[in-house]
Structures are given as C-alpha cells and as structure tokens.
Amino acid sequence: MSPESSAAGFRGTNPAIIEFLRQEHRNIEKLLLILERELSVFARGDRPDYEVIQAVIAYFVVYTDLYHHPPEDMIFETLKVRDSIAAATIGDIAADHRIGAERLHRVAQAIESVLADRDLLRQAVNDITRDFIEHERRHIAMEERDFFPAAVRALQAHDWTEIASRLNDQKDPLFSEGVEHRFEGVRRYILQLEREAEAERA
Ligand SMILES: [Fe+2]
Ligand SMILES: [Fe+2]
Questions:
Q1: What is the DSSP letter of 36?
Q2: CA of 117 to the centre of ligand 2 (A)
Q3: Continuous H helices in 44-176
Q4: Is the dihedral of CA 78, 81, 85, 91 positive or negative?
Q5: Distance (Å, rounded) from C-alpha 93 to C-alpha 27?
Q6: Residue 148 C-alpha to ligand 1 middle, in angstroms?
Q7: Ligand nearest to the CA of 144
Q8: Distance 65 CA to ligand 2 centre (A)
Q9: Cα of 202 from ligand 2 centre, angstroms
Q10: How far is CA 144 from its chain centroid?
Q11: How far is the CA of 64 from the centre of ligand 1 (A)?
C-alpha cells in the first residue's frame, strides 16, 4: 500500500479513503473465505477449528463496527446531501451495517451454542453462518459497484477532507498506523491458525 493510501494518509485527498476501504474489503473477503472453509468442515460432520471461527467472529465484531463502518456511514451521509437520488437508489448503508451486525451476532450465538453442547441443529448453524457470509459478500459487491463510484462522483474535495479530519480528530484516532498495525497482526494470526488447521486436516 502506498503511503498515500495508508491509514496515516487519510488526511489527504478523496481516493485515499475509498482505496483504503476497498483494500479492507479484500481483507474481509479473505476472512469470509476462511469462515466458509471452516463451515464446510462443520457441514460434512467433522469438527471445525473453533478457535479460527471465533477469531474471525471477534475480528468482525470489533473491526467492522469500530473501523470499517464509520467512514462508510460518514460518506453515505454526505452523499445524501450531495446527490439524494443516488443515495436513495443505493438504499441505506447504515441500516445495512446494523442488520449485518445482527446477522453476525446470530452467528456468534450459534457457535456458542454448539460449543456449550446446547441443542441446535447442524443445519441451523450452517444456514445462519452461510446467511452472514452471503450478505457480507453482497454488501461489499454493492458498495464497490454502486456506492463508492456514486460517492466519488458526488462528493467534493472538501467533503473528503472533512470526513478524513473527523476520523483523525477523535481523541483516540481510529485511523492511526498503530490501530491498522494491530488489526493486521490479528489477520496474520488468523491466517496462520487456519494454515495450521488445514495442515492438521490434510
Ligand atoms: Fe459497508
Ligand atoms: Fe464496506
């Protein structure tokens, strides 16, 4: 990632934020793939690596709400002002995020139930998790196809500066290199766990 598009480069120009969010989508997709792989182990009746599953869930719980959604919500709020028709066509990004969080919560509960040996049909766990994965993928695809291009067309240079400064000006800036570094560490850790789980199964 170039310094321009790194988290620290957020103070800068518009494409840096969008580029950053797109890059984060690639990271999220990798984690969804891991979750999907573990789910297929579960679906065929074997024991998946629950440490991997719970690490992915924890990443989504913390990362998306604290880190990925705030800039998207801010961009969408501004898009509503700059091009209300485009915004209305896209729908409601913030509501999608809230519903996504509920879906994730259901996944977390389903996995907890399995681990606590509570009665929950294998098929139900499978359906709940698959539902989350599919909606996340569709949401990402929609953002990249409709939302980001509409925002790039409609927002003005000072809108991006304003959004960037709001993200950076918080007492604990979300978009600091330190925070990004920590999340990267967690992603690397999850990938490593998954490699080990796959090696054991092979
Ligand atoms: Fe989103
Ligand atoms: Fe997104």
A1: H
A2: 34
A3: 50-59, 69-82, 84-90, 93-115, 122-142, 148-154, 157-168
A4: positive
A5: 20
A6: 10
A7: 2
A8: 11
A9: 34
A10: 13
A11: 8
Answer for the pair 152, 15: CB distance below 8 angstroms, yes or no.
yes
Here the tokens at position 83 are: 């091009």
Q: Cα angle vertex 162, ends 82, 137, to 5°?
A: 70
Q: Is there a contact between 114 and 39 (Cβ–Cβ < 8 Å)?
A: no
Tell me how far the alpha carbon of residue 108 lies from the centroid of ligand 2, in angstroms: 20
Instruction: Show the CA angle centred on residue 163, arms to residues 180 and 10, nearest 5°.
Output: 40
Instruction: Give pLDDT tens digits for 18-36.
Output: 998 999 999 999 999 999 9
Tell me the CA–centroid distance for residue 98 and ligand 1, in Å.
10
**pLDDT above 70: residue 13:** no
The two three-digit tokens of residue 4, written as one number = 């321009």
Rounded to the nearest angstrom, the distance between the alpha carbon of 118 and the centre of ligand 1 is 33
Q: Which two tokens stand for residue 168?
A: 């950076």
pLDDT tens digits for 65-87?
888 999 999 999 999 999 999 99
